[in-house]
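Changelog-linked ticket: (2S,3S)-3-hydroxy-2-methylbutanoyl-COA example.
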Amino acid sequence: MGSVSYEVENRVAVVTVENPPVNALSQDVRSGLSETFARFEADNDADIAVILGAGRMFIGGADISEFGKPPQSPSLPNVITHIEACTKPVVAAMHEMALGGGLEVALGAHYRMALPGTRLGLPEVKLGIMPGAGGTQRLPRLVGVDKALEMITRGTPVTADAAFGFGLVDHLGEGSDIRAAALAYARSLLADNAPARPTKDLPAAKADDAIVVWRAKLKKSVRGEVAPLTAVDAVEASTTNTFFDGLAEERRLFLHLMDTPQRAGLIHAFFAERAIAKLPEIDGIAARAVKKIGVVGGGTMGAGIATSAVLSGLAVTLVERDSAAADKARKAIAGNLDAAVTRGKLSAQRRDAILQDALKTVTDYDALSGADLVIEAVFESMEVKKDVFAQLDATLAKGAILATNTSYLDVNEIAGSTSRPEDVIGLHFFSPAHIMKLLEVVVADKTAPDVVATAFALAKKLGKTAVRAGVCDGFIGNRILSRYRTAADHMVLDGASPYQIDKAMTDFGFAMGPYQVSDLAGLDIGYATRQRKAADAHPRDRNPSFADALYHKGWLGQKTGRGYYIYDQGDRKGHPDAEVERIVDQARADAGITPRPFTDDEIVRRYMAAMVNEGACVVDEGIAQRPLDVDVVFLYGYGFPRWRGGPMKYADMTGLDAILADIRSYAEEDDHFWSPSPLLEKLVAEGRAFDSLNQR
Ligand code: T1G
Ligand code: NAD
């Protein structure tokens, strides 16, 4: 239960919001604020009020867990209008975080102060909505339309110093005791006879050309998201209406956004990414200490993993086959650190200190003897990996953790090749490993719970979004990827152009289509995967011979300047290639296929049906704990549009019965590739959604 307390100290009323962990403005907090300010207004012992947040921050916003449920009064806009209407001055005293409805409470106050380091923001667009308690009307009056649009449409918090600079904050407090700083500021205002100063009474801001400029900018960048452009409409209303007419328009637009599937998708993503680490198997299990890590193999992945680790303050010893390879790995890591310095994410001094003290690149496994955890990232060969694990088993101290970054190989088999399978786990990073946030934590049959707990603790330290996965070919992400990629290749064989498929999926919201992704990763990766699977191929498997043809031509994608697309010097986007269309036509002719047209809608439905169906199998087999784990993997590792919530959430919003019907109709043509997941059939039969499995 949230609460609001009230006490008067030397004529200053101290109003404290307490609703751990983020002081969200839940219904009981809102009613508490209403009652408290009615009391303040009538309190002759109090001349000024300060609003504080108890504990770690001011206020983290409206209570997101109330969204989608019937609204309860008092509404936040009314509570804030009530505070603003006080005839005695009200101060918002902010520390740590003032976000969303929390900053709107501060905008309704007459004076705003903040401790250094406080972050102030309106992140609502990241939830598919926009400020709905006066933020789009009061902020422009205080800081101008351009700055208001920057804060509202980007949703990125600003620091207290910056906010002081552009007039959002009136006073920067000293020290770290928000209560003391607030009382001091309130007394100085009293000494100056500072009046109540409603923001609503400030003149409406001038639009100038800011509205036009931001609309144009956003149209290019939002990629299907509706909230940012709707927020521009609300800010525009603040420049052309009276305050309360503008407030009413804000409310209308806010409630419209609350009803959009995008809001549901983004709120699902918010809670899903916070649920993935909540695993009963590690509840209450202490993680092992990890200060020094080892990395074996300093190629594409090893160098990225080492970079991520040293940037997170860990000491890293990287082992390569020979000194040339070790030097190459060090150069690659130094290059990543230089790039971080260039981007202002790292100081040159810190880079130099890392290269001097935190990173060792060697060829001798004995250098790993003091490591708490070692991540193997050598060639994707079972034999090479078993050899490396044998050396680690012989070298590492008891209690050290042995991890493999394999993409596809059997982690149980690797674990079984050591004397300590309970200390073996899969840590599947994504390329580039120092950039991509996703980490699949692959738990083998004998992996000890505290090893799993340590993996999640390490992920948090590395700033990664870790998802638990079971052992199977491709774990969660790559296993599902191979299914919808195959569905795409089948559509190409049957008549769709790779370029049409990419366009349909980028219109759907993906950053890149499947053939653009192949060109980025390298067509040799796809070819190696097909070769690896060729031994177990089924006679009814359909072979995308056009892809092999491109490989044999040496058209490996961006790294060779040509793949599915042609990449002129410096061009990372590429343009379609008529020669590829001819190679595809030849592949169809060789397979005796008469091509047929595909609509973009059919392409999306087949692509998503394959993704969702395999997602259901992965959940059914326990490879993913819950559907939300699949969603987070695709949001963080495969460029799935966040506003759709992830493939399983998308399926729930589309209707599982519709997706199952599609799969059954596709199975009439090809029941070898299309076979409905038993879990999907069960949920449809029971009229349930995937979300019903997310609570377990
Ligand atoms: N409502 C309800 N629960 C919230 C919450 C919120 N606003 N913010 C966080 N939580 C829960 C979260 O689910 C987690 O729960 C716990 O608190 C700790 O969060 C009218 C309508 C504040 C930066 O978008 O960005 O105001 O997992 O793990 O990493 O215009 O939480 O422990 O059960 O994230 O330290 C606008 C959302 C709302 C801010 C802290 N506000 N929150 O990060 O902890 S819309 C936001 C955050 C709005 C008005 C509109 C972060 C944080 P559990 P955490 P953290
Ligand atoms: P890579 O070829 O770029 O690097 C492998 C490195 O391992 C080479 O530098 C090689 O010298 C070194 N090496 C080989 N045998 C060794 C040994 N016995 N001792 C020490 N070093 C040795 O390969 P990569 O792309 O970095 O892939 C490494 C692993 O990560 C593979 O298992 C791969 O499946 C997996 N993976 C790759 C990606 C990706 O996108 N490239 C993504 C996730 C996982």
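Closing comment: Example verified and attached. Residues 296-302, 319-321, 325, 377-380, 384, 388, 405-407, 429-431 surround nicotinamide-adenine-dinucleotide (ligand 2) (CB under 6 Å). The longest helix spans residues 600-620.
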